[in-house]
Specification:
2 domains, 60% helix, 372 residues, mainly alpha
Amino acid sequence: MFLMMAEVWHLSGVAEKLPQNGFWASLSFHQSHVPWIGCSLHDLIQPSFSFLVGVALPFSMLSRSSKGQSRKEMWYHTIRRSLILILLGVFLRSMHREMTYWTFEDTLSQIGLGYPFLFWLGFKNRKWHWAALATILVFYWLAFVLYPLPSTNFDYTAVGVPENWPHLMEGFSAHWNKNSNLAWAFDRWLLNLFPRESVFEYNGGGYATLSFVPTLGTMILGLIAGTMLKLKETELLKKWGLYAIVLVVMALILHLTGLNPIVKRIWTPAWTLFSGAFCFGFMILFHWLCDLKRIEKPFYWLKIIGMNSIAAYVLAHVGNEFIDQTFKIHLGENYAHLLGPTYSSLVSGSVILFVYWLLLRWMYHKKIFIKI
């Protein structure tokens, strides 16, 4: 969550002003999404968020069950949570627009779309979890394969792909090219059923509604990890480590053989496996540090953010401009030039992040937690 909030630093802008500096170029790369194939640190934010939803589910279900909630009541809460997440995502994407912007490709909406099925799986055993994951990924892969490739004279520039874009794939992998795949075609049908300012033709980044299906696969991996954690299984770190190795090997085989490229923007099955491996790796690291070694103080500031992740997510989408303008009013238009104009986004971004953290810290100590 902190990495998402830290977008306000705009490291790409700093890197552009220092074109010969490899350090800032590296930081910029890892604060940006890759154009299509591959992965940066920034690309792992959404999978990590989705994975943690799965990790938390067994504990949430146990808590509600211990409070005497019936399965019917739990289902009501699940459907309600799902709808709120979907609509909150739509609300945040509609800001600064003339009318409601009905798309469903962002983190909250994607989680909301898959959450009821994840909840249903929460009542099942681990064999069901693995079977559901395999079924989702295989059939999602097959659906893309069966969707016909565009004709040789297909105009990619008409769907937002720059001329001579170097990331277009050929051969079998072309089934997962930007804005010419199954998910793009589905959105051209689905999203035009909603009232819009203009006809939906494509998403500029290539993102798609149908990505919620393999995103559910990421949440299932989290559910598997969370169930193991809840049951306090022995040799937990070794098992998670084995899962991580198997997942990343499978992903690389799919990618290198051309059977399925690693593409985050349309959440290919290979991406689900690849990012899932990193999520298990993060779980291993923080479970070992915080739960087993009890090293908690260095991560206190992150805990404050994580305990109010929904509030942090919304703040990062609505508050940046307001805070920056407020400081400009009271400290002057150039308050962020403290380190010179090259680093102005670092100064303004740090101020915004500090204000957010103070607010979240106040909420934490007042035990105000925004839950859905």
